[in-house]
Structure formats: C-alpha cells, structure tokens
Model the fold of this input.
Amino acid sequence: MSDTAAGLLQLLVLLVLLAAAWRPLGDWMARVYTAEGHWRVERAIYRIGRVDPDSDQRASTYALAILAFSFVGVLLVYVIQRVQGFLPLDATAGGDAKGAVDPSVAFNTAISFVTNTNWQSYVPESTMSHVSNAVALAVQNFLSAAVGMAVAVALVRGFVRSRSGRIGNAWVDIVRGTVRVLLPMATVLAVVLVACGVVMSLRTGITLTAADGSTHAAAIGPVASQEAIKELGTNGGGILNANSAHPFENPNGGTNLLEILAMLLIPVALTRTFGRMVGDLRQGVSLLAVMTILWGGMLAVIWAAEAHAPAVTGGGMEGKETRFGIPSSALFADSTTGTSTGAVNSLHDSYTAFGGGGTLLNMLFGELSPGGVGTGLYSILVIAIIAVFLAGLMVGRTPELLGKSLGRREVTCAAIVVLVMPALVLLGTGAAVVLPGTSDALTNSGPHGLSEVFYAFASAANNNGSAFGGLTVTSPFFQIALAAAMLLGRFLPILAVLALAGLLSAQPRREASAGTLRTGTPLFAGLVTATVVLVSAITFLPALALSPIAEGLVATAQIGALP
Amino acid sequence: MTSSVLTPPSGTGTPPERAHGAGRAVAAGAFRPRALLEALPLALRKFDPRVQLRNPVMFVVWVGSVVVTVAAIVDPSVFAWLVAVWLWLTVLFANLAESVAEGRGKAQADALRRTRTGTVARREDGTEVPATELRPGDRVVVEAGMTIPGDGDVVEGIATVDESAITGESAPVVRESGGDRSAVTGGTTVLSDRIVVAVTAKPGESFVDRMIALVEGAQRQKTPNEIALSILLSALTIVFLLAVVSLQPMAVYSGSPQSLVVLVALLVCLIPTTIGALLSAIGIAGMDRLVQRNVLATSGRAVEAAGDVSTLLLDKTGTITYGNRRATALHPVGVPDDELARLARLASLADGTPEGRSVVELCAERFGLPAEASADEARAEFVPFSATTRMSGVDVAGPDGTTVAVRKGAVASVLAWLDEHGAIDPADHERVRRIAEEISSRGGTPLVCGQVAGSRALLGGAIELSDVVKPGIAERFADLRAMGIRTVMVTGDNPVTARAIGDQAGVDEVLAEATPEDKLALIRREQKGGRLVAMTGDGTNDAPALAQADVGVAMNTGTTAAKEAGSMVDLDSDPTKLIGIVEVGKQLLVTRGALTTFSVANDLAKYFAILPAMFAALYPQLGLLNVMGLATPESAILSAVVFNALIIIALIPLALRGVRFRPVSSEQMLRRNLLIYGVGGVLVPFLAIPLIDLVVRLIPGIG
Done:
C-alpha cells in the first residue's frame, strides 16, 4: 500500500471513529451539564469547597469563580514546582536531583498549564519531577480543560435561557466536566495506551543498551496517564521533551491515531452537545460542518505541501518520525494546531514554508477548527455572532442568533473576543522582532525566522502551546511576553464570553419566523466559514506575506531555477 | 363589555401562489448629481475634527490625511502629495455623502419654518400675543382666515382647516371639539367658522418643530443597530491599525522598512471607509424616505423597529376593507333579476348614504340602469330611514294616479310592511329569510326590497351589502407572510363577520368584537412571545395600545393623545401605509449590512495591490501576488487609494436610495445580497483598480 493510500485509509478510520463517538458523547455531555442531581463524590467535593451546587450564578459571579479558581491554580502549580526538590521522585534519568524549577520558568509554566496552553519553555526530563508532573501539571490538564468546557456551556445556556440573566454554576460545571467527562475518558484511554506500549512507571529512568553496546539512561515516568489527558483536554504538554514524537509517549501508528482521535473527540462532540442543549440538532451540525471544512482544508494544504516538498526522496521528511511518515505527521500537525492542543509528533519548524504556514494559519483562525475543549465551541459561536450580525442586517432585521437579538452590548462582547488574539499576536510579534536580543534567540533569519517568532506568539495567544521551535524562549522578554499573551489570550475572551452569556440569558428568547435568518443551514455554515477565513486573512495577510508566503514563494522560485 | 374572540381563519395556512417577480421594490428617491455640488459648502464645514470624531473610521482617515500631508511637506514627492490629496478627498466624499442626505430635508424644513414666523394668537379675552409665548393650557380663538398658533385640541366649535402646509394635501379637513377629530396643528389655517383651541405643546416642541428637526437630521441620534454596527466597524479599524502598526517592525526585521505614506495608505485602504463614510447618510436617507411618504417618525429607533416588526395589527375598516359596506349582489325572490334591480335602484335613488349610492352603482353596473335620477324620479317623495320603520325608499306617482311605495330595509321590517299591505306567498317569505341568513353568515348585511301599489304587495328579493376587501390587499399580506410578518385584523364586528372578511383578505388572525383593552392585551401577549408589534390608531382610546406597540403609527386626523402616544404620525392618515413603513425599516438595515459586507470584501483586492508593491523589492517573488498587473509600486498604492475614495462617491446614490428590497424569504434575500455585495465586493476592485492604474501610471513620477 502506498504511503498516500495508507494515509487516506487512516483518515477514513479516524472520521468513522469520530462520527461514531459524536452522538453518544455529545448527548452524554449535554446530559452532564443539564442534569439536576449530583453524584455522591461531587456532593463531597461541594461540601469540602463549601459551595452551594444548586445556586444559579449571574455572569459576574460565574466569571469571578473561574478567575479565582484559575488564580489559585497558577499559585499552586508555581509553588509545587518551586518546592519539588523537597518532595520525592525528584531525579533525572541519571539519578541527579532536579531541584527547584527556576522562578521564571515556573511562572511561565504555571500560567501555561492553567491557561490550557501547555507551552513548555523547559526540558521536562531534566526539569520537572514526577510529583510536579502528576500533582501540578496533570491536575491542571484536567481542570483547565474543564474550565474551557464550563465557559462554553455557560454561553450555550445564554442562548437557551429566557429572561434569566443566570448562566449556571461554575463550580458544578467544572466538577462535572472533570468527574463525569474527563476522568472516565482519560482513565480508559490511559489503560488502552499502556496496552499499546506507552510507558507508565514511577521510576525516573531506565538503562538502555544501544546496538553498539554503549549504555544510556533514558527518562521514563507516569507517561500514559498524562498522555491521555494531554490529548483529551487539548493540553499538549508532554512529560518528555520530544512530546508525541517520543516512542515512550507515542510508540506506534495505533497510538498515533488514538492520540489524534483523543484531541478531536471532545471539541467535535461539543457541537452535538450544543445542538442538544439549544433543542435544534441542526445548529450543532452546521457548526461541525464549518469545523470540518476548515480542518479538512488545512489538512489538505499541510499534507500536500509536505508531500511535495523538494527533497531527494520521499518528500519533506526532515523533522518527522519515520515511524509515522508524512500523512500521519500532517494529520497530527493539522489536528494539534486546529484543536489548540499543541502536542507534536514532528517538528513544525522543519515543515516546508506552506506546510508550516498551514499549522500557523490553523491557529490564526482563532482555534476553532474544531478548537480546544470548550474554547473551540465558544470561539466559533462568537464568530457566528459576527457573521449573523452582518447577514442579519442583510435580511432587514435586527440580527438575531437562536432567538437572541444581537445589539450594541452583545456585539461589543463578540468584538472584544475577536480583537484580543490578533492584538496579542501582532503586537507581540512586532515588539519581539525589533528587540535586539531576538536575532540571537533565532536559529534562522529571514522569513523563516519571522515565522518562528510569529508562531510562538500565535501559539501562546491562542493557548495552543505547540512550538515551531528554532526559537530560544528562555530570555526574560519571551518568558514574560509569552506568559502575558497566554494569560490575556485565555482570560480576556473568557470574561467577554461570560458577559455575553449573561446578556443573552437575560433576553427573552424570540420565536423564529419566516423573516428570521435561519441558522443551521448549509448557507449559514458557508457564511461562518467565509467569515473565519476572511477575517483571519485580512488581519494576518501582511504578516503572513513576510513570513511563510515570502519563504514559500522564494523557495519555489529557487527550485524552478535549479537545472 | 363585549367579549373578544380570537379566531385563526381557515384557509390561510399556505400563502397564495404569486407570479414570479410580483414583489414590488420600495419606492426610491431620485438622486441628482447636482446635489453633490450643492452640498459642497456643508461638506467643507464638516472637516472640523470635532465633527469627524463622531465617526471613528473617518476620523482615522482624517488623522491619516494630516500625517501624510506633513510627510509630503517634509519630504516632498509627487507620490506623497497625490496620496495626501486623495486621502483628503476620501474625507471630503464622506462629508459629501452626509451633506447630500441632510440637504434633501433642508428645503422641506425651510418651507415648514415659514409657517411659524409671525403668527399672532388671540386669547379668548381678545388680547393678542405672539404665538411663541403660548404655554400649554392657554386657550386661543381662531377664526376663518387665521393661522392656528400652536398645537392643541379644539374645545369649542367646528371648522374646516387647510392643513396643506403640513400634509401637502390641499383638500380642507373638518376639525371639531370632542371626539377623535379634535386635534389641530400649529401653522395650519382655518378656512371657515370659529374654534377655540386649548394649546397642548410648549413653544419649540410643537409638531412643526419636531418635524423640522427631523427632516434636517439635526437631532439625529444613532439608532441601536447603527451603534452596534459602529462598534463592529471600530473593532475592525483597530484590527487593521494593529496589522499596519505591527507590519513596520516586521518590515524592518525583514530589511525593508516602509515609508509613513505607504503605511497610512495601506491603513486607509483596509479600514472599512466605504461603510464608515456612508453610514450616517444611510440613516438620514431612511428617515427621508419616510418623510417622502408623508410619515413622520419621532426617532430613528422607531424606523429601525419597523423593520423588526413581526406582527401587524390592522384595523379592518379603512385598512383592509373600504370604510363602508357596499351592495355586492342582488338575490331576486319570485321576480326576474331586472325587476329587483329596478326596485332596488328606485328605493335607493334618493338615499344619499354610501350604502344607498352603492346600490344604485351596482344596478348601473350590472343592469345598465341609469345612475342618475330622471326628471320624473326626481319629483318622487323620499322617505328617509328612521329607527322606528327601519326602512327607507320613495313614493312615486303610479300610472293611474295611485301612489307606488318602494322600500328597502331590515328584513323583518320590510316583510312586515309588505304583509300589512297585501298577501305574500309564504314560500317566498321563507326563501327570502333563508337568503338573508346566508348573507349574514358570509359577513354581509341583507336588505329586503319590495313595493306596495294600492293593495298589491310585491316582494322583490334581497340586496346583499358587504364589506369589500380592498383589491390587492391579499397579495400584500402574502408578501408580508413571506417576510415573516403575521397580520392580525382588528374589528368591532362579530366573530362570524370578522372571520369571513379575514378569510377574504388572507390575514393570519382575527380579533373580533375588539375593545381597546383587547388590543392592548393582544399586543402584550405578542410581545411576551418576543415579537415586535406595529399598529395604527387614531382615537384617544387607542393611545395606550399605540404607546405599548413597538411601532405605533398615529393618523394625523387623530387626537393629540393618539399622536403623542405613537412613535410615528402618518400625515395622510392612510392606515395601509404601515406595510410600507415596515419595508422602509427593513431596507434601512439591508442597506447597512450590504455596504458593510461590500466594504470588507473589498479589502482582499487591496491587499493584492498593496502588499506586492510594498515588498516586491525585498522578495521579488511576491510580485506573483500582483495579479492585477499594476504598473509600479507607486501606481499600485495610489490606484488602491483612488479606488477607495471613488467607491464612496459611486455608492452615494445607493446609500440614499437604499438597496432594492423585495418581500421574499430571509434565505432568498441573504443569498441574493451575499452574491451581489459579498462576491461582488470581492470582484469589483479587482476590475476597477487595474482600470484606475491605466490612468494613474501616466502621471510622471508614478508610472
């Protein structure tokens, strides 16, 4: 079987699995977030946390809960990293103590994991102890994902409720997302991954004997458990530096496919949850269609660019695992950047100009194809609001989405969400490239160097966390600027989305009439897709022209000039 | 109190078939190119930065123009100066658009203003005071030939009033104390008789004052949708500002720093100047279209709300049917058709009521009988209708000197009268009663017609009077249904009659035996379901409902209370206009959405013009993006700037006229507008910019 045919077959299997899971998982999540009763373990958590699980919160209370929860999360993750030297299991593979994590790295990492970015400005094997990994980082892998889902569900409630102004209970949403969705799924996946050969151990290292007889110490750890939630929660922070390219994290084609599936599972199924909650399944299907078009389109771009890369044999294999080859790498790269996961099974820096540009553009769409857990759904709903606002005017009515009219305040909230990411990416990149230290931090100059900086800020502001590589980000400027981008890129949109949810919830829900612009139609899906593409194109075209586009055109011209 | 009955009439589930293209476009105001020239002085005054600040998008252009001008002075070049000039022209064109829109109302305002000056009011005690000193509650006497000094209600007397200054309608109207025709407007003239008016408006807040402010657009406030759109446009402007600001460091990093002139040119081309320049003109023009239809809205908000209306409350009488019942059929019993026609005509000849005249017209139309009374007939003695006899008719001289009495009237009364004077076949008796019942069940009114000559009584048959639904009204309702608007017919008729008329007109719902309280309750119920309601009304008892409705259109003939409660006043007092008002409201929104889409879609082509121009020197391969084949970097950038300015002028007529609006479903409308303004917006600059470049490249120093 040719590489391409195998790749297409793998894609087909992936799509079939996703399609099979879409309905039960989506319906299950809808039930999780609408059910009246509490599980016993949840009640215990509420009692310990002294929260009333039956109170219905206003947007401001909900937002405060999310912020406070995340702030405490940052604090805990920071402290645990700083004291890991006093805790057990703090040794490298070679047996040396790792000691406390450097303050700026710990600060950056704390923000990175709480914001679901999981950008890693450190080498895990030599920096992070098993305790830090399991108690600080893996816990945030669950909680930051649960926060994203909670915010998305709160926004959906804004559409569902009429004249209420209340959007649910943040504590209940976080707890249920963790207990009823993420924990069971992660447990099952971790067991399956172990069965497929992913490492799971509390030992810090093993000794390997290489083919030439020399011995090496290889770091191992509780990988499988973290690997599962790393993909399911669209987190992406690996326990090993090579991330999902490492055979201990991702040993074979089977685990590779499983990990891709895990990344896409929840964001995709949330469209069904949305349709179920608003009582019109077609609404969810049309959003899923938009995500699929964007994800599929970018997959085609990345795959084609890599497959046709100018190399002596086999296309652009630089930076890719021979275990996976081009199709599986392209599929992984497209999914990890389309879902804000940021796990990698190949080095995006080594991709061709257009292939790497594809992964970059995937993030610049605003992480909604299908986006992170929860963040994808709320991001695409915000874009839908913008699209409906213009389209709604064009049918001669005050624009409305799902029976909620979009007035001054709703549009302001949506505009803030849409503005934050480009502002962070463009200003961050702009500031970074003129700083004198940047050229030293870069391995490449010219358009590819610009791509590296551009990618770093796009990854941070979109809470993706994947690194293009080639850029040393340990300087104070990058540590702080990227942390700021992660923090603002996560919480400013969340605040605006929750405010939006409150505004929508307070409105009466209007019945649809023949004069209302119907959503949940192919025309609507096309409109939202066009809005995503047009908005990101006109925002980022100048910057892209100087980085991947220039690089790609120059490279193409050079090849043309070859004898 | 009567109980109201809500009955959805049967047979209105599916809209009737309509021929393709049967929809009508909203009437368009003509645009004269000369208007641009006339608006120039006003447009120049708008260069004041304080004026520009109100429009964030154009303010950015204004600042950009200043920056480029300074840059051109510091480092002069043909290119820099040309860009500066065209940026200023962009601001000017935006100002022109607004000025032209404002200018259209100006002439009308001037005419109105003349009605106010120099009016003197005479109090009841005979003292005279200037009209401007009148306060609410003052009572003034107005006699024939005098101008009414202020808005108020007639409290004594009756007079004919010439309201042409306000309505443009030359036929005088009657205004009398009490009832629903008591309101008078300052500036109108009393033609006959004498009335005492209690002033209701404070000076400066009268109807005419409001109207002047309105047509001049002086107190124009941004409407909710306009504000929401402005926010979106501001957000887009910020995005582009960021894109351009961050571009310079990246260009520096790449080794090709850009000049300030080029960066400003890029920024101005990207921000949504087209819609930014035309936004307020669209709003003013929307109000103006209403004024042209003789409808005054108290705020732009009301006009916009009209576009959102999903339920229309329409009075049956005057809106759906002609005001009066008309004879629509003759049902002879025991006599030939033409014999009944002869009798019916005779009985109605001297009857001056609308019903009576309609009988004569029907006979003339169907049986060719003369519509006017002959000399003989004119001598006949008219027996008027009375509450006791419940019939009317004529007594004519018979051939042998006897008197022949012809009567028409209520079924029971005429039959009793006939029985009294002669024998009637009981079978005919029964037949005519059955016909009468059928007519009633159809919503009509039966009259029986008969003749008594000596001792011989002759039963002619029944005349059917019915409400006649205005022609074309059913099609309009079908259009409304396609647009997602439900129609509710409100009438005081009984449910059976109401449903019959409702079925004929094709309304969605009927509110029969309606009291003002019922109307109010219906509006509240609709609003609770999240629907916006529009209604018309004229009486004082309509005022609460008018105030409750989202769009309340008061008739100018109505009371002051009604006019104050409503959000619009229809000077022609034509309730049918409500439908047109809805269309104007929708058109306003469509125009804004369409031009925004067009404006944003334009950006793609501008990038293809400007980006290769900026960076082809650095990366020659980026020249591939120059798909339009523009001559030089300077000509490319200048062409984009020129296009950006000219498109504003080109779209002014569209902004003023409004995008063509057809009553079709939202899906169809969106598809159509996306195709024209979205896809069109992407393509137009790809065609226009190269054409402009053909000219621009001839300029020395550019090409």
Remarks:
- Residues 283 and 521 of chain A are 8 Å apart (CA to CA).
